Amino acid sequence: MELAQAADKPQSVTPAPAGPDAVASKAQQPNPFAQKSQSHTVPAPDGAPATRREARQSFLTQEQVEEPATQGWRGTVTRLGIRMTPSEAERAERADVQAVSQHWPGPRTIAIVNGKGGAGKTPTTVLLSAIFARYGGAGVLAWDNNQTRGTLGWRTEQGPHETTLLELLPESEKLLGTGAQSADLAHFVHHQTRDRFDVLRSKPMELASAQRVDAADVDAIHRVASKYYRLIFIDSGNDESDPMWRRMIDHTDQLVVATTTRDDHAEAGALLLEALAQQNDKAHALAQNAVAVVTQADSKATAADVKRVADGYQTLARDVATIPFDPAMVDGILRYDALRPSTQRAWLAAGAAVARGL
Fold this sequence. Notes:
Blueprint: H1 2-8, H2 20-28, H3 52-55, H4 72-79, H5 88-100, E1 108-113, H6 121-136, E2 140-145, H7 165-168, H8 172-176, E3 190-191, E4 198-200, H9 215-228, E5 231-236, H10 243-251, E6 254-260, H11 263-277, H12 281-288, E7 291-295, H13 303-313, E8 319-323, H14 341-355
Parallel strand pairs: 1-5, 1-6, 2-4, 2-5, 6-7, 7-8
Antiparallel strand pairs: 3-4
Helix pairs in contact: 5-14, 6-14, 9-10, 11-12
């Protein structure tokens, strides 16, 4: 019955409003009644069609012309004079290069962590620093935030001095003063001449009791680093209860878990992420946004071993990068140019994964 009554009632039909194309079309039609002698403009009421200037599309566009291929057979054909589009692999590499070449507003701090020694924290610190410095330019620091025999100084070039963070600490207020200059830091850091970043060393020859650094010291060093560097990569120690380690987390913007294919290394990194996720909101966010870097440190490890660990971190971290075995990473000073091309590409991908979290 109600349906029948509703059908008998006359329906009032409201015409649909004209679309923007129709409004713009009407606005552009000349008014035959307008007086040509009038030169003043009547202000348009709110909601009125846009003026010609507002409606006009800019002649400037953001469209970018893709550069031709430079790699593989496509690059060879391009060099012969026939322009070829890049492959998907080359496009992906260009995207990764663009990611690590960015400059962000304000400094960013990246902490490389794992509760087990030998898990690859130092190589990860060095080679991520190299990636961002080589592609993005100066202003990258690798800092050995370690109470007990940090090895960052052993895996990087030494400058014309033996200065460490212990010598920087008494000068921190001076370096933060208005009269300080960036060149003053050369007294305390060790510049990497090929990979273009600086290293702030700990003193591995001393016992931990002789170089104890507390949370306030970490704050002071971080203030100096943040004043002079845009990216700060921190190579951390193994004691997650150390005030030095915990204060590092307070300053961290992006967390990187370094691990090898060894079960104890992988488990230690996973437990660390799970523990951080149960702490305060910032620690939880760092764990959720973490990047895991799985390095095939053992030449006997198989692709299946790498995949097993990487798959295990997929549910723990935002992104997972894998690094193949490379003899140049085993001992001695680490240099990006000494790596195999496939290893260089893997570190570039790892750097891009980190950059996406900054």
